[in-house]
Amino acid sequence: MKLQTILSIIGLMTLAKAQFEDWQHPLPTDSRAPCPGLNALANHGILPRDGRNLTVPVVVAALGTLNVSAETATGLASQALLTSSNPAGGVFNLEDLKKHGILEHDGSLSRKDAALGGANAEFDQETFNEFLGYFNGSDQITLASAAAARWGRLTAQRKRNPTFSYTPNDRFGSYAETAIYVSLFRDAATGTVPLERVKIFFTEERFPWAEGWRPVNRVTGLSAANIILNLALNTPEDPVTDIVMPTTAAQ
To answer: Angle CA(158)–CA(163)–CA(167) in degrees, nearest 5?
Structure first.
């Protein structure tokens, strides 16, 4: 390996360390999303801290610090851009992502449904406590228990929310929500996800660098698809009959 390449890698690792150690609570005027991952990137200053005027290249670079491939990051960032009031302008704010039915969906692991609480971009402790309850006191999350928690939240909200929707797009978003935390925080040696990492990620919107986590898992479209497939295999879900299209009241 060339010396210049080695120095570049060392430089990137040093920069990432400095960024992950520099977490700040957002200001009341900062823009934040229903997505704890993007919020955490802003809280660490990896994305602009105010969460505004984001572009696809900026988001791709930020996701790169999490070891997300450029192709996967581009796909995610491009979907986020669709929530902008002016996608053709090429910029969006984190708060744009709370628009229901694009990326944001009913049955979130940590947010109230838009129809039931309105503040679907904000962390909700009661919702998150319900999510944690599906792990039955275990401090490790398996793919099977992650699948059960995801499906449990969806099933509960389907009963509570008279305008609940679970479209094919919502279905993908729900699976992706779980696949993201599994991809980022799964221990390569055990194959399980330490629950404490997930708690920090959702409740503080912080990456658990101080607790020893490092972004060592390579996240690609293929790796994410493999996780989603395994989640689906552990879910009693019918891909046809369990689809719920939005009602007129939900639109």
So the answer is: 70
* Owning domain of residue 31: 24-91
| Cα separation, 99 vs 234, whole angstroms | 29
Q: In this predicted model, what pLDDT tens digit does every residue of 192-212 receive, in sequence order?
A: 999 999 999 999 999 999 999
For the chain, the domain total comes to 2
> Which residue would you say has higher pLDDT here, 18 or 163?
163
pTM: 0.91
Q: Residue 249 — pLDDT band, cuts 50, 70, 90?
A: very low
Helices (H) and strands (E) in the chain, counts: 10, 2
- Tell the residue number behind the tokens 């299209």, with chain if given: 245
DSSP sequence for 3-16: HHHHHHHHHHHHHH
User: Is residue 29 over pLDDT 50?
Assistant: yes
Domain presence at residue 172:
yes
Q: Pick the closest to residue 52 from 94, 84, 96 (CA basis).
A: 94
Q: 73 and 165 share a domain? A: no
Tokens of 44: 């660490």
Report residue 119 as tokens. 């503040």
Cβ pair 238, 86 in contact under 8 A: no
Is the Cβ–Cβ distance between 21 and 209 less than 8 Å?
A: yes
